[in-house]
Amino acid sequence: MRFIFELLKTYLLFVALFLLGRVTLYLIYFDRFNEIAFEQTLLTFIYGLRMDTIAISIILVIPTIILALTPKKLYKISAKLVSYFILIFLVLAIFIECATFPFFAEYDLRPNYLFIEYLDYPKEVGSLLFKDYKLDIIFATILIFICIKIYLKSNFINFSKAFESKYSIRLLLLLPLLIFLFIGIRSSFAHRAANISDALYSTNRVLNEVTKNSLHSLGYAYYSYKKSESNISKYGKIDLKNAYELASNALGIKFEDELKPFYREVKTIKKESKVKNLVIIIEESLGAQFTGFIGGTNLTPNFDNLANNHISFTNLYSNGTRSIRGLAALSSGTLPIAGNGILKRNKSQNDFFTVASLLKPFGYKSSFIYGGEARFDNMRSWYLGNGFDTVIEEKDYKNPIFRSTWGVSDEDLMIKANDTFKEHFKNDEKFVSVVFSSSNHMPFELPDGKIEFEKDLPRNCVENAIKYADFAIGKFFELAKQEEYYKNTIFVVVADHNVRVYGDEIVPIDMFQIPAAIIAEGVKSQVFTRLSSQPDILATALDLLGLDLSYPILGNSIFKDNKQEINLMLFDETYAYRKGDKVAIMVPNLPIRTYIYKNKKLIEIDKDKQLEDEALALIYVLDDMYNKKLYK
């Protein structure tokens, strides 16, 4: 029975490692569970063991087969092979457990697909890790080295002893053990195998995250994202024709052409002899709570001044928590699609609607202006493939004032943008441009002499990054107001998403709130307080250009009667569809639930079938339009 005993010890070793990580997370975030009964919080260890068992059972399949099928004369080779196989996974598990703590501190989540995505950008991520997580890396490296030494020298697990069991006995045990591991992987006798949603036992989102297993979470995220372009049934099922009708009702947009859904003609509210240019300035991670006109701070005087004297949005929510969600929403007017973002998907790399492709027939020159490397998040390829004439990125800046991990400073960005627009005016060209900032990003590297740093806070903190981003906004408008193009241009200043999405709610909706202002000479200032989405911002800005336009944007101008008070938000894999103060929450492989949003809390109420059907319909419609390339 030594065969089984060595496998059992391996299982217990991994259980101990995962338990140590979970206990540490539990203690760190214990104050976040104050609304949950103590005994209920302890269930995290029971449900967590289930998640651990799934991961460990997968790891043990290959060693079990090798140890069972190898004849005794080859035991040394097999024992060493299995030993190193387990060591590789042990090192991987230790590394991921160590990485979980800074990742959780930053995103309020266990490692997910974002963790994998960032591996595609070693330069930026390597620089960030070296500057902000040096001690974490040193600690993890030392810990891994010590564990390797102990594992190799200790006799606690000795796979050679597995061969003390007779070959015939090992063969007889193989099938029962594989069945046992299969049960462990499935972790359910129900029709459907257990998955990541089975960790969501509590109403407290952070406690559910503690319950998960980071190794399993990463593996599931990778599998889910690879499968996501063809599988949205995990959210529920709905007839596609019915979905389009429900989505049409929810959006307030007629569905008349199956080949061009939601494509309609929109008359401008401001017909003029000379049409306007359009500049959309997208601010990285600028949450509404940091602004004066919404959050009551003194960090953004320049943004506040623009908002107070033009059109401001005080009840606006982002599509998601990633830049690619905000960029897609504000450049193409779409809502968040399940799985990978539009910028990275294969079928949206060309012939996908954008503001540039919309205005190109009217003679507009278009540009995407960024301070970093535009290969990040596939921005360069997506913008150039979908109608934008030019992408300006880090390599195009000569002698920048300041350069950080993520590229040149926001001040450099704004100077370059102003110079670009001056050149368009000089050449008598109409223009549309998306300008994307990057200074408000970890590790918050900021130049000297530009802002007064906040007292009693570290220099490299989010508050100072917000102040610097606002300084750059002020710099741009100071320069632009001196130029002739200014009076004939509509400007949008809006965030892509909030800085960090923290909160114990299953979807922390308040952390999706972002600020926006539309600056248009000759347009009466107003404060728009109705619930709005990022596609609404794009539709409103286009309404002021002086052009009658036809487009499929999934939002409406605030100047139109069909403006709806809805928002679709994506948090990791969980959707929140908000209509007024009612919210439908959609978690993969779980029933849709209805909540009321009150005082920044989600309170579950009786099912609202219409709301839940509309939520599911929007997800199906977004997926169908993408797969059939109908959003154009």
TrEMBL record:
GO terms for cellular component: plasma membrane. It holds the Pfam family Sulfatase. GO terms for molecular function: metal ion binding. Gene3D superfamilies: 3.30.1120.80, Alkaline Phosphatase, subunit A. It is a multi-pass membrane protein. Keywords: Cell membrane, Manganese, Membrane, Metal-binding, Transmembrane, Transmembrane helix. The keyword Membrane applies. The active site is at 323. InterPro entries: Alkaline_phosphatase_core_sf (IPR017850), LtaS-like (IPR012160), OpgB/LTA_synthase_biosynth (IPR050448), Sulfatase_N (IPR000917). The chain crosses the membrane at residues 12-29, 49-69, 81-105, 133-152, 172-189. This is Lipoteichoic acid synthase 2. The lineage of its organism: Bacteria, Pseudomonadati, Campylobacterota, Epsilonproteobacteria, Campylobacterales. The gene is ltaS2.
